[in-house]
Amino acid sequence: MSENTDYKVLVVDDDFRVAALHAGYVDAVPGFRALAPVHDARMVPRAVAEGSPDLLLLDVYLPQGSGLDLLATLDVDAFVLSAATEVDAVRTAIRRGALGYLVKPFDPKVLASRLRGYARYRRQLEGSAGLDQQGIDRAQRALLSGEEAGVAAATPTEAAVLAAVAAAGEPATVMEVVTAVGISRATAQRYLANLVQAGSLRLELVYGSRGRPEHRYLVQD
């Protein structure tokens, strides 16, 4: 996907009002565009074939079919958005490939956060021809680096480190962060590593004429 192309999202929900609401949530997130929602399970394969969505937002209870059955047949990334909280439903959704499971009703900020995590996940997977174990783990964490991860990670120091990198206007060095935030080099390195691992920052290695490469950091788009 090119930088100027939005991720296309297909909302599948039998409630016309809820489907329109969720499509509106999607359109409010930069980098995402909702396709016309689908309300009948029988129409989903055709909508996928014609619209080529990147991601489905899929309800479990649908007329003439089940969203969980669709998961097993459609080769498309999907989040399940459903009021179904039974353990069997959740396990089946995950077993059949759902990348996320949101219980309705939910705050639109939660969906927005998950969509941004999905965008990071896609960028990390598409940024290289191959992945090592750390790259795979980082991509998987990106999917959940929304509300849950944000609560645990939003410390004042981490926010200051992230702001310092963003304010630099170009890839920042560890010492530039140390100076801007007023922390030790070891502390700066620890927070920078955590932010890279969470997908908020990207690490670049700059090689000079000799010696070890210098680490530079920039905000992940």
Automatic annotation (TrEMBL):
Where does the record place it?
Answer: Cytoplasm
Task: Give the matching PANTHER family.
Answer: TRANSCRIPTIONAL REGULATORY PROTEIN DCUR-RELATED, TRANSCRIPTIONAL REGULATORY PROTEIN DPIA
List, in alphabetical order, the Gene Ontology terms for molecular function in this entry.
DNA binding; DNA-binding transcription factor activity; phosphorelay response regulator activity
Keyword presence, Phosphoprotein: yes
Report the domain of life of the source organism. Answer: Bacteria
Which of UniProt's keywords are assigned here?
A: Activator, Cytoplasm, DNA-binding, Phosphoprotein, Transcription, Transcription regulation, Two-component regulatory system
- Annotated Response regulatory domain residues: 8-119
Protein name in UniProt: Transcriptional regulatory protein
Pfam families from the UniProt entry:
HTH_IclR, Response_reg
Which SMART domains is this protein grouped with?
REC
